[in-house]
Amino acid sequence: MPQKIPWIERRFAFDLPISMFPNILERLRGTPARLAERIHGLPPDLLRKQPGGSWSILQTIGHLIQIEGLWLQRLDDYDAGLKILRPADMTNRATEEADYNRAEPDSLLAGFRQVRGQLVRRLESLDDEGVARSAHHPRLNQPMRVLDLMIFAAEHDDHRLARISELIRGTI
After folding, report:
1. What Rg do the C-alpha atoms of the chain give, in angstroms?
2. Using an 8 Å Cβ cutoff, are 115 and 24 in contact?
3. pLDDT tens for residues 34-75?
4. Domain of residue 56, CATH code
5. Which residues are within 8 A (CB) of 26 and not within 5 positions of it... i.e. 6 or more apart?
6. Residue 81 phi, psi (nearest 5)
7. How many domains does the chain fold into?
8. Which tens digit of pLDDT belongs to each residue from 68-113?
9. What is the rounded CA–CA span in Å between residue 138 and residue 152?
10. Does any domain span residue 9?
11. Which of 66, 105, 147, 169 is the most exposed place for a label (fewest CB within 10 A)?
12. d(C-alpha 120, C-alpha 98), whole Å
């Protein structure tokens, strides 16, 4: 199986038309269910295993919860008319400092479902003009519309789900 590219090395061509909004919204809406299905029935030791000191499956879910706050804050940036979106904490300090390996999987899944629901509800309230708003993404050094932020978030979801699959297969 081809190895996936590290997230920090990903580049994006944000060129989807605004008419793709409903499709991307459904992709975001579906991530909590895909995540729950992916880890259903896994033994606790596998959920907490950290090969080579990397994040465990539970820590990866915790990271998804943490990063959801950034997506919501960036929607605030668009609402405020900011020219540059707030940067991500590339050290992932909040994820590193949280003790997600002590959490119950169902609790983490519920937490992710809850914060993703907040994001989806905010996005559902947007009109075409809201979806097309643009600001500069600091790390990518390119403009990003709200639609592009949605694509970015969906790609991040898939990147993390692929990581969980690697952990399950033991290929890490």
Report:
1. 16
2. no
3. 999 999 999 999 999 999 889 999 999 999 999 999 999 999
4. 1.20.120.450
5. none
6. 75, 25
7. 1
8. 999 999 999 999 999 999 999 888 888 888 999 999 999 999 999 9
9. 13
10. no
11. 169
12. 25
